[in-house]
Write a structure and sequence with these properties.
The protein is built from eight helices and six strands. By secondary structure, the protein is of the alpha/beta class. It folds into two domains: 13-134, Alpha/Beta hydrolase fold, catalytic domain (Rossmann fold), CATH 3.40.50; 138-191, no CATH class. The strands form two sheets. A four-stranded parallel β-sheet has the order 2-1-3-4, with helices on both faces. α2 links the parallel β1 (32-36) and β2. Pfam families: Abhydrolase_6 (PF12697).
């Protein structure tokens, strides 16, 4: 089976992101990584990272958030961040009080790990934000997306807002018109 180009060279412990930064995280072999996917993904997107961390002797769990991956729930009915991150909060509630995790969040997973860090500060030893959504104080996730996507009229036209709390309430999620997204990829040179 052919290997991806990212795995063709031999890996070493010096390749680890944890050893390149200035953060000093003590005794990582006894730490537990919890990986939180970005929007539109699931725990499956962490399969290479999970494999590499486990092969290096770390404890790792990748969580499917509500309506994502193998977690069956109609995402159009998710109306709050707390509902979306419930599988993660359930995991941390059951996690031993004397142990800590290292949270890793990608994309909207960044907002999710920020949320649970506030709920369970004694269970989190570190957080790693990977190209993650970072909200300003008082800013909603949808506010952030509208600012990012507002830079391109095509992105705005592709947005389909969902209203799980009713049309008279703020939108609870965003979907995209797939035919317009394909056009956006061509415009940006992705295809």
């Amino acid at each position: 089976m052919p290997r991806s180009s990212s795995s063709r060279r031999a890996r070493s412990m010096s390749d680890s992101l944890l050893h390149q930064g200035t953060t000093n995280v003590e005794d990582l072999n006894h730490k537990h990584f919890v990986l939180v996917h970005g929007g539109g993904f699931g725990a499956w997107c962490w399969y290479k990272t999970t494999t590499l961390l486990k092969e290096s002797g770390y404890h790792v769990d990748a969580i499917d958030l509500t309506g994502s991956g193998a977690h069956f729930f109609d995402s159009n009915n998710i109306s709050t961040l707390s509902q979306y991150v419930k599988p993660l909060t359930d995991f941390l509630e059951k996690f031993d009080d004397d142990k800590k995790v290292i949270l890793v969040g990608h994309d909207i997973g960044g907002a999710c790990i920020s949320y649970v860090m506030e709920l369970y500060p004694s269970k989190v030893s570190a957080a790693i934000f990977v190209a993650a959504a970072m909200l300003k104080s008082g800013q909603s996730t949808l506010d952030m997306f509208s600012v990012q996507l507002g830079l391109n009229n095509l992105c705005q036209r592709a947005q389909i807002f969902r209203y799980a709390n009713g049309k008279d309430q703020p939108p609870t999620s965003i979907d995209y018109d797939k035919s317009l997204i394909k056009e956006l990829d061509r415009v940006k040179g992705f295809i």
